[in-house]
Design goal:
CATH class: Mainly Beta
Radius of gyration: 15 Å
Number of domains: 1
Structural class: mainly beta
Strand order of the largest sheet: 1-2-3-4-5-6-7-8
Number of helices: 0
CATH architecture: Beta Barrel
Order of helices and strands: EEEEEEEE
CATH topology: Lipocalin
Largest sheet: 8 strands, antiparallel
Strand content: over 45%
Shape: flat
């Protein structure tokens, strides 16, 4: 799918379950997403911003009842650094 908004092109790639796995922006920024193949819950995300690219990565952990156990994320975008959240 391609969407044009003023100066910025957005290209989205989907997996066979129709979940977005990659988003590329006309600015050069991009987002990536990974999912558990059995539950289709998101397991990881990565945002790449700027040139040279700065990354922000997160990992999600889920309970069997579909509630979020915790999220770990780290990166250095715009001066923000490692953070960790667990439930």
């Amino acid at each position: 799918m391609r969407v044009q908004r003023d100066w910025e092109a957005i290209i989205v790639t989907y997996n066979t379950a129709s979940l977005a796995t990659q988003v590329n922006y006309g600015s050069g920024d991009s987002d990536n997403f990974a999912y558990d193949s059995n539950t289709l819950r998101m397991t990881q995300f990565k945002f790449n911003v700027g040139a040279p690219a700065q990354s922000y990565v997160g990992t999600l952990t889920w309970n069997a009842n579909s509630t979020l156990i915790g999220a770990r994320y780290f990166g250095s975008i715009m001066g923000r650094f490692t953070r960790r959240v667990e439930h």
